Amino acid sequence: MEELMGSLRMISNGNVLLYILKGVGFTLGIAFFAVVLGIIVGTVLALARNYCTKGWTKVFKYIATAYIEVFRNTPLMLWIFIGLVFFPSIEFPQDVSKFFGLSRTELAVLFKAIIALVLFTSSVIAEIVRGGLNSIPKGQFEAAYSQGFNFFQTLWLIVLPQTFRNIVPTLLSQVITTVKDTSYIANIATAELMGRTFQLIQISPNFTGLSTQNVSDVFVLCGLACVIYFVINFTLSCVVRHMQKPKKKTAVVAVTE
Amino acid sequence: MFDAEKWGLVWTHRQTFIDGTISTLLMALFGLALAMVIGVVIGLMATSHTKPLRVIARVYVETIQNTPVMLQALFLFYAVTFSGVKGFSALICGIIALGIYHGAYISEVIRTGIQSVPVGQSEAAYSQGFGQIATMWYIILPQTIKIILPPMVNQVVNLIKNTSCMFLAGGAVDLISRTNAFAVGEGTGSAAGQCYIIGGIIFFAICFPLSMLASHWEKRLKARDTVSVPVQKKADDITDAELDMIISGSGEGGEH
């Protein structure tokens, strides 16, 4: 009982709470950044894989296909480790690292992990976008050509807007996955929620006022982290479900055609 | 990159990679077996006629799917070891964690499959005197197998990729962790690039054929559907499960 009181004392400590809260901020920020960059890179990859089919442009198709398949069939952890060893170390200015509340080395390591996450996420998003592109009927292209649109105009004005409207729910589910994937960053850097939870478990006796690490510390800290992840992701998945309902009519049009 | 000496170093330590591959495969195999059991039980609960069972299944799936597998693995490992249990190895913890996590995903695959069979099928079976279990076994399941195979194989690929979830808590057991231990190890660090290439190739060689198999089945299924499914379907006739499949491109991408 005393152990549990100690654990609860720990998470009612303002500094600990602030530390965890900053971790939540990092988790959300990193996931958002990764998905936005992933959508940009992923769209380019998907377009290359789908439409670079003639003559010398086939090279781009092969590159995009190889990229997508390699990243989809290897774990994120591998790329995070590769990033740690091979990506360039960026010297962030002192002000920037102070703003994020990390040391300059920590920030450089975190940056490498984020790049790995972006590379990995963009391969998954590329496949989602490709699924969306394939669901656009061929008639849309033909109609656009007959109206004098060229290929790029057709893509930009006709095909991509419909594609993105169709894949919004899937992209949001991917945000959930990416929020969970950020936890893999904990393996090399302590910045986001998972890494900070792990860190706190290691040093819990400093805050509980007890001399030993107890099982109640694990339950309280991991439990809190679970609740935070759950609230973020469950909210997102409710949004996804809400968006899928009114889509019924649009989906049916696609089926009956 | 083509330094013979560094490749030689990798070759002398080949046992590291062999051990890593074996433990990754072991974890994946037993994890998958556990996930299948959990997935079938929860999936059947989610489609049963008893409300409490459906609620339990829903709560399980939502809780597990909305939290990261790394956190679950860490939670499980520390909760057990700090409780004073001796000999709880990282390998066993990884198997249980993967089983619980992917069990939730597999149960969703099975639920979607069962619900994609029209209600009329089971009504017809009941009217012919089939019991609930017999209906499931003879009528519903044979029809769902084809639908659930592609997403199921995708889950297996994800499960293999997630075997690295024990790195933080239990130490280096799986292929990725061992590759990393080799890459940062004293005396072997110079061959970091080579060892990551080897680790990556082994993973790719395991996962790529499975991914290909999944997309092959998916294509065949789609081709067959466009031939046999009547096009005149009214909006209200489309079930939620079918809608999920239409919108998400039948489980492509996403879902880890």
Give a description of the structure.
The complex is a heterodimer of chains A (257) and B (256). By secondary structure, chain A is mainly α. Chain A has a single domain, classed as Orthogonal Bundle (MetI-like fold), CATH 1.10.3720.10. Chain A is 80% helix and 0% strand. Chain A contains twelve helices and no strands. Chain A is elongated. Chain B is mainly α and 256 residues long. Chain B has one domain: MetI-like fold, CATH 1.10.3720.10. Chain B is 77% helix and 0% strand. Chain B is built from eleven helices and no strands. Chain B has helices at 4-12, 14-46, 51-65, 69-82, 90-115, 119-127, 132-161, 167-170, 175-184, 192-228, 240-248. The longest helix of chain B has 37 residues, at 192-228. Residues 229-233 and 249-256 of chain B have low confidence and may be disordered. Chains A and B meet through helix 3, helix 4, helix 6, helix 8 and helix 9 of A and helix 3, helix 4, helix 9, helix 10 and helix 11 of B.
